[in-house]
Amino acid sequence: MATLEQLLAVLGRQVEVKGSELATQLRVSRPTVSRLLASAGPSVCRMGQGPATRYARTRSIAPLGEQVRMYRVDETGRPHEAGVLHPLWNGGCWIAREDGVGERFAGLPPFAADMSPQGYLGRGFTSRHLELGLPPRITDWTEDHQLIALALRGDDCVGNHIIGAASLDRFLASPLRPVTEAQYPELARSSMSSEAGSFAGGDQPKFTAYAERRHVLVKFAANDDGAAAQRWRELLVCEGLALEVVRNAGIPAAASRSIRVEGYQFLEVERFDRVGERGRKALLSLKAIDNEYLGHEGKGSTWTSAARYLLQSQYISEEDVRRIRWLDTFGQLTGNTDRHFGNLSFFEDGPKRFRLAPAYDMLPMMFAPVGTSIIDRTFEPRPPTSETLDVWADAAQHALAYWSRLEQTPELSDTFRGHCARCRDSLAALMQRTPV
């Protein structure tokens, strides 16, 4: 007679298996397999329904156990049960959703990958939560470490998911703490000492706040006299103006506001995954979508080529493909060398259906300092390709207007305005000899 230990041993050697295959491998009847599976409890995950049902061994994560409840916060701020996450013995997880639809993921589900501590705001997570016993550097974390962080301290993450009852309790018990822009310098100093805040990505110094009845991400550059600090202050001005130009082109972009307080330069960017005081919207980065469904980043892929693959898989609309190609082209023509897959995001419009979110992080990063050094780089605008031919001329016109506006912006130094004027002239020359 087969035992529970034998069942778990057989399941542990396979990614997943059907009940009939278990009966064959254990040399027992199907009713015996059913009894063994029932006695296994949460140590075995049932995946799917009917004849297609498969089984996998789960793994226990201290202190979470073999399963973690998930929740979604709607746009009114009300939380709803969304399903159960089952970590699997041989890696990845199974999501059993409340609507009965389940899905297996090779690693963390895409929304959890985006929610995990990262970038400037994530680096201080371990020191703020020593009680969790996580490795000091988030770059050393496993997926289990990420799940522990999300399930126990994940009440204010990107998107609308909350993982774990403890994090939901923190969300329900956390009152909003409105601040004013006069408090921004103190929040910036606190951020530099503790890197406190949510888990929003990116290495630019920042903090999150609720100001003037809006949830905002506030980037900042220090108020010292160094050349690098001055350059970052100028780049924040450039970022706000770039988002304005994108909106003028008819493409949604994050609402932003440049503020100067006590010598600090702040760029206040309204969060588009938040609605009102407590509401939230589902949001996924291109990086998370690509990691789970495409796997093209790191192979010379661009926003433009990724959009093509997304359209082929019917994940996004043709209009969003055009907008992505425009943003990619505009970014290249404005010196934005930081067009990685984390800097493009999508709202969820159903299972594997995504809608392009407002643009963000658009600025001429070619001018970014390296540490404390200012590096002179040559701007080389590229001509259209077969994939960007239909959007290049319009993107170029707006890029030209952008460089011209920067050249005339009094908040920028004479040196920086000179760089912008040369970039404008290089682009103008390319446009003159490009027959589009």
Automatic annotation (TrEMBL):
GO terms for molecular function: protein serine/threonine kinase activity. Pfam families: HipA_C. The lineage of its organism: Bacteria, Pseudomonadati, Myxococcota, Myxococcia, Myxococcales. Residues 200-368 form the HipA-like C-terminal domain. The keyword Acyltransferase does not apply. This is HipA-like C-terminal domain-containing protein. GO terms for cellular component: cytosol. Keywords: Kinase, Transferase. Belongs to the HipA Ser/Thr kinase family.
